[in-house]
Design goal:
With 702 residues, the chain is of the alpha/beta class. It contains 25 helices and 15 strands.
Length: 702
């Protein structure tokens, strides 16, 4: 296939090169009149074909090569002008097409032909070309200004799992191509304007030169004027008409918004959407026909046509209303009445309940992107965490606020949010200086202040530097972060058994040796849940089982086994917390404090705690919290708490309630050779009491 594409591309390049060589030859070599007729017919046919193709395109980028095509067609038409001028001046005959345009279109009159020619010039130059040029210029500027906001929206969709990396790259490429297209169209519009000016200048030169040559060859002045003026006007019209068609095509292309339909389909659907405007229009047209002096018949015919069209649209509207009035609600109630009692005991692991105004977002009968994005989110969870996320049940709930939604795990609400349908969430990226109007709200994931803005304000907000996100992306991002936070709660024993059975197909001896008496499935589940709770993927199940098989004979404590598994997953942990420069940014403990904490470890059943006075525990926790806030305020995205391996588990438990987002990792969980940059060192706060074993101890239970 690549070879076939290369071969086809080479042939296209050869054809294009030969075409350009032919254009250059036309400028230098005298062309026979039959061949000139053929080339002029090609020019007119090509312009009509381009107009039809443009009208059927669904978005501007469907014809991204239009600027280059415009240049090629313009050069082709100008070369034909040179060839026709040569024949008009040398032999007073430039073929049948030019003669026909001069005689038939202009009626054989020089004045009529000149008036028609000037009117077409004014239409093309002042109306079509100027408008298309202005639209291209504004679109190029707006597209360029909106690029940062669109890029951030793509990154948000990618992080939320709504799109894949390939889809993100495709969207980024489309944004770049869109910017380049409108910039090229802005420049290409100058060719159209120059072509219109060149056509009228060439026509005037043909008239003056033709009269002079005819007079010098012995023709009477009147005969020379009639002969050469008609030919010159015909030549101008032959070139002006294709040029105007190309200008109209350019105008259609730059004014075309992205749609799944062509221009004609969009116009018919939008103009005939409602019957009421057509009814009003029919009465107004009929009233105009009653004005004294105006011919009544044309207006009555048009009014009748509008009325008939109004009746047709009205019937279509009634058909849609009947179709929408389906007994779905009645069926739903009947199903609820006849539902077996046993099925009411089933609880959805993950469910989302929405208010009445958000039903359109989750209605499976409508073309909604929510379901596709949830599917992409489940694939992302499997790829990144190694966890098969359960199906998400979407339901409406009239008992909650109409714009609210609830994310539930096992029918317990764990997160809530609000959405505004048909609006966009705008967040200040930090670079905005001018505010936009909107409904104040709070971004549901990180609690940042935001605004709900209308679609009309979206482009302005993007130009001002706001990050603008559609409501579906807001919901998917919130759902993704919520499920990631509670991933350990979603892992059931049945899920673990399925993971083990899948691994058994490729590693039968490992699974047969470890799972069972050495490591029960329940113990494996607790270890995997601990890993997920710490944000560590469980994709490397083979590594997990190998480490458990080696150490499970020494201890059955799931917490200690988790620490063993973490050491074997050091590469995964290191890659997860490295920044873009390959460094690990860390908050560390002062050696003296670390020694005191390690000296006061206490084992309680399966739990390991730091036995220090409660005020000392609080002082250390507050110091770490302040250090973490300071680092985050400086813009450091990935930061970890580094400590001795003996302290990792109890320290993580101690910080879990106040700083759940701060990862706690041990030194031996980092791959040797990885650069560590300590940002802040936590020392024992001044003023704390000296640690005395006889004091009352407070354990931070793991």
């Amino acid at each position: 296939m690549p070879l076939a594409e290369t071969s086809g591309g080479s042939k296209s390049n050869i054809v294009l090169t030969l075409g350009l060589v032919g254009i250059l030859a036309t400028l230098l070599v005298r062309m026979p009149t039959p061949m000139l007729d053929m080339m002029l017919a090609c020019s007119l046919s090509l312009s009509i074909a381009i107009l039809v193709i443009t009208m059927s395109s669904k978005e501007a980028l469907d014809l991204s090569t239009f600027p280059s095509l415009l240049l090629f067609v313009t050069l082709f038409r100008l070369s034909l002008s040179v060839a026709s001028t040569r024949l008009i001046l040398l032999q007073g005959n430039a073929g049948k097409i030019i003669e026909t345009f001069g005689e038939f279109v202009a009626g054989g009159s020089f004045v009529v032909g000149m008036v028609i020619f000037l009117i077409m010039f004014i239409i093309q130059f002042i109306v079509v070309t100027k408008g298309a040029e202005r639209i291209s210029e504004v679109s190029a500027r707006f597209t360029l200004d909106a690029m940062p906001g669109k890029q951030m929206a793509i990154d948000a969709d990618l992080n939320a799992g709504a799109i894949t990396e390939a889809q993100a790259n495709e969207r980024r490429g489309k944004i770049i191509k869109e910017s380049e297209f409108y910039g090229a169209m802005d420049g290409a519009s100058k060719f159209i304007r120059g072509d219109a000016i060149a056509t009228i200048i060439i026509t005037l030169i043909n008239i003056i030169g033709g009269i002079a040559i005819g007079y010098s060859n012995g023709m009477e002045v009147g005969t020379a004027v009639k002969t050469y003026c008609i030919l010159s006007i015909g030549d101008g019209l032959v070139n002006q008409i294709p040029s105007m068609i190309i200008s109209i095509s350019s105008g259609f292309l730059v004014t075309k918004i992205s749609s799944s339909r062509s221009v004609g389909q969009d116009l018919s659907k939008q103009l005939f959407r409602s019957s009421q405007p057509l009814t009003i229009a029919s009465f107004v047209i009929a009233a105009i026909g009653l004005v004294p002096g105006l011919p009544m018949l044309p207006f009555l015919v048009l009014a009748s046509g509008a009325g008939i069209m109004s009746r047709v649209v009205a019937k279509r509207e009634k058909g849609k209303d009947k179709k929408s009035e389906s007994p779905s609600q009645l069926q739903k109630n009947n199903d609820a009445k006849h539902q077996p009692i046993e099925e009411m005991l089933d609880i959805d692991r993950v469910s989302v309940q929405v208010g009445v105004r958000l039903i359109s977002l989750v209605d499976p009968r409508k073309d909604s992107a929510i379901f596709d994005r949830i599917g992409a989110l489940r694939r992302k969870f499997a790829q990144q965490l190694g966890l098969v996320m359960p199906l998400v049940r979407l339901r409406d709930n009239i008992n909650i606020d109409s714009n609210a939604y609830e994310i539930r795990l096992f029918d317990h609400t764990v997160a809530t949010g609000r959405l505004e349908p048909n609006m966009f969430l705008a967040m200040d990226s930090g670079a905005t200086k001018t505010k936009v109007e909107g409904i104040p709200t709070t971004e549901p994931v990180y609690g940042l202040p935001a605004l709900w803005i209308t679609e009309a304000t979206k482009e302005k907000a993007e130009m001002l530097g706001y990050t603008v996100i559609d409501p579906e992306s807001v919901f998917i991002t919130h759902l993704s972060e919520t499920l990631r936070k509670h991933a350990d709660e979603l892992l059931t024993r049945e899920d673990v058994q399925q993971l083990v059975d899948r691994l058994r197909k490729t590693q039968p001896s490992l699974v047969g040796e470890v799972i069972g008496e050495v490591v029960p499935v329940g113990t494996l589940q607790r270890v995997l849940k601990n890993l997920l709770k710490n944000g560590i993927p469980i994709r490397e199940l083979q590594t997990v089982l190998e480490s458990l098989g080696e150490y499970a004979g020494k201890t059955k404590n799931p917490e200690l086994l988790t620490e063993v598994v973490r050491k074997h997953l050091s590469r995964t942990i290191t890659e997860q917390y490295k920044d873009k420069n390959g460094k690990i940014m860390a908050i560390s403990l002062d050696p003296a404090l670390e020694h005191q904490m390690a000296s006061n470890l206490r084992q309680e059943a399966e739990q390991l705690s730091i036995a220090l006075p409660s005020e000392t525990i609080m002082a250390i926790t507050n110091s770490i919290a302040n250090a973490w806030k300071t680092v985050m305020d400086k813009g450091v995205e990935k930061v970890v708490m580094l400590c001795d391996s003996r302290l990792r588990m109890p320290l993580a438990s101690m910080l879990g309630r106040q700083l759940p987002q701060l990862p706690v990792i041990a030194y031996n969980e980092i791959v040797i050779g990885t650069e560590i940059e300590p940002l802040i060192t936590i020392a024992l706060p001044q003023g704390t009491k000296t640690i005395n074993p006889k004091q009352e101890l407070a354990g931070a239970t793991a």
